[in-house]
Amino acid sequence: MDEFLPKWDFNEVHRITIGAPREAVMRAAMEVTWSDVPLAQLLMKLTRNDMTTYRRILGDIKQLLGKDEQEIVFGGIGSPNGTPELDPPGSASFRAFAEPGCRKTVMNVRYEGGVLSTETRVKATDEKTRRDFRVYWLFIRYGSGFIRRAVLSAIRRRVRRDLRNHTRSEG
Fold first, then answer.
1. Which domain of life is it from (predicted)?
2. CATH number at 10-162
3. With CB atoms 3.0 to 4.6 Å apart as the test, which of 23, 52, 65, 84 could cross-link to 73 if both were Cys?
C-alpha cells in the first residue's frame, strides 16, 4: 500500500481476528458480495449508491493496483468532473497522477498473523480539494467505518461457513 500512496491526508483502519488459513481468508475477501452485508446495503440505498446485491464488493472498486498472497490493493481517482483517465492505465500512472482538483484513494485488504484488516487512504492533489474533502470526510467517516467493519465481519462469516462446508465434504 505504501508503494502506491505513501503520504495521505485522511485514513481509516479496521481490523478483525479470523485465525484461519490465509488462502481461505483471501478467497473469501475476493468473493464476498453485498448480499453478505445487508445493513450496508441499506446505508448504500439511503445514499443512493447502486450496490447490486450479488456483485462482489471488491469488484466495485475501480482499479486493482497490486495483489500478493497477503494483500490486495485497489485505487481510484475522483474529481467533481468524474474519473480522470490514466494514460497509460496502471499503478505507475496512478502514483504519478497529480492533476489539481482531484483526490487519490487507495484501499487494501490485508491478512497477516490471523488478523484481517482494511485501510483506506485519501490524498488530495491540492489544498482546496483537501479542505473540501475534509468536510465530506467528517460526514461519511462513521458510516464508512461501519460498512468496513460489517464487510470484515461478512468475510469472517464466509470463511467460517466455507471451512465448515469443506470439513463436512471431507467427512
1. Bacteria
2. 3.30.530
3. 65
